[in-house]
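We treat protein structure as text, and this decision shapes the records that our systems exchange. Such a record has a labelled line for the sequence and another for the backbone structure tokens. The record that follows is passed on verbatim for readers who wish to inspect the format:
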Amino acid sequence: SKDKLLRFLKRTKEFDALKNLGERGFYICLNCIRGEKVKKMKINVEKVKEKLRKQIIGLIQLGWRSRHIKIGFDDTLKEIRKGKKGFLILAEDVAERTKRNILREFQGDYFCIFKKSQLGNFIGKGEVGIVFVPETKFGLKLKNLLVQYLELDFKEVTTGCKK
């Protein structure tokens, strides 16, 4: 499906993260980005990664302002115990004990992509170690962008963090 493809504009070869710019475009799979096609088309992978990162940050901020996402251990635990489906964004530098305790309760996907200070800075708080994103259209879009970002970073996408 097109969800797993990256869209570029034909004329300017610019990356279209939200896939909604009104210009003719073309799609490239994540595996092809690593190959020869990128060299021929002169696509800068670093710029694509940076745009994806900005999109992820923007969606986290939007989710916080619209109260879609929950932050912190206690709020996340409440949502999990209510039986809500979703995924977690854990800070890379979250304490092992916190990670172990939350994953004991939560059986699902989680991503480690930012530091605690960065996550807190995005939403205007101090340090934030855990973000719970519910499985809504908003959540699925954010999850899709996270997966694309990690695959572009040449990291294997798993349901976990790599140390």
